[in-house]
Design a protein that fits this description.
This protein has 245 residues and is α/β, with parallel strands linked by helices. It has a single domain (18-232), classed as Rossmann fold (3-Layer(aba) Sandwich), CATH 3.40.50. Helix content is 33%, strand content 17%. It has seven helices and seven strands, in the order H-H-H-E-H-E-E-H-E-H-E-H-E-E. It has a seven-stranded mixed sheet, with helices on both faces. The longest helix is centred in the N-terminal third of the chain and has 17 residues, at 35-51. It is globular. The structure holds S-adenosylmethionine (SAM) and zinc ion.
Length: 245
């Protein structure tokens, strides 16, 4: 059963210079030193998924999109520089964002990812869950089945504080606001990112509630969606306390 795609309902002005500005906020030089590794990794991810007889893109998994390279690149950049010990995400599907996070954790040789995911309604799609994640990366991964509404509050109170939160589940205003408001207080010197923010005014409302924090809205590589980034640095605008590389 295919989920029908909601139309874009909120018009955001994307920040064309977001990547350079994000580096500036992190006290890092420009261009991003993590980008070349990402471009190599992305080709590997695409190829690994192809070996399962699948291709990445939009509307691939019961009407849901796989992460586009722009969103994945932003997550890789944040993972590489912030090196968070604990990462929480919502929305796994074929596991593209999970793979990117777990690759960064593996290279840092420390950290853990908790992913909350409501499997697709069509049970024939369940064998596709996490296909982008090789077995070798699963030792630092906890996959939790259920809705974020039921699972996220307890998970965060059990494991917090966290360094990165990734929203990629249901993109309704109610759900994105719920997840970001739950996760934000538990983020310590890190960031929250959210995919498909154009589907509701939720990210704009969330960003408006954070005066003084750096927030960005970014256009996906194929220009058909937008994602949001909110940085939570304890000394915003100056050198962050964590060891940025
Ligand atoms: C856009 S896909 C995730 C894509 C994935 N992050 C990737 O990069 O490949 C959204 C996923 O979230 C799941 N989902 C939908 N509503 C949810 C909810 N309320 N809580 C948790 N997961 C949900 C969907 O079934 C689907 O597996
Ligand atoms: Zn970077």
């Amino acid at each position: 059963m295919l989920r029908s795609k909601p139309p874009a309902v909120h018009r955001y002005e994307p920040d064309a210079d977001w990547h350079r500005q994000l580096h500036e906020r992190l006290g890092l030089g420009w261009p991003c030193t993590a980008s070349p590794d990402f471009e190599r990794l992305w080709l590997e991810v695409v190829e690994d998924v192809r070996l399962h007889g699948l291709s990445l893109g939009r509307n691939t998994y019961g009407g849901w999109d796989d992460a586009d390279p722009g969103f994945a690149r932003a997550i890789w950049c944040l993972m590489s520089h912030l090196r968070p010990a604990k990462v929480v995400e919502t929305g796994v599907a074929r596991g593209v964002t999970s793979r990117i996070i777990l690759e960064a954790i593996e290279r840092a040789d420390t950290g853990h990812l908790w992913s909350i995911d409501l499997p697709a309604m069509d049970p024939t799609l369940h064998e596709e869950i996490g296909v982008a994640v090789p077995q070798t990366l699963s030792r630092r991964w906890t996959y939790i089945t259920g809705t974020s509404r039921r699972r996220l509050p307890k998970l965060l109170s059990d494991i917090g504080p966290i360094g990165l939160f990734v929203h990629d589940s249901s993109h309704t205003e109610r759900n994105i606001l719920f997840e970001l408001r739950e996760a934000w207080p538990t983020i310590d010197n890190g960031a929250a990112v959210a995919d498909d923010v154009q589907q509701s005014p939720g990210f704009a409302r969330f960003a408006a509630s954070l005066p003084g924090e750096a927030t960005f809205v970014v256009e996906a590589d194929d220009a058909s969606a937008m994602f949001g980034i909110a940085l939570k640095l304890d000394n915003c605008g100056q050198k962050p306390r964590f060891t940025a590389r």
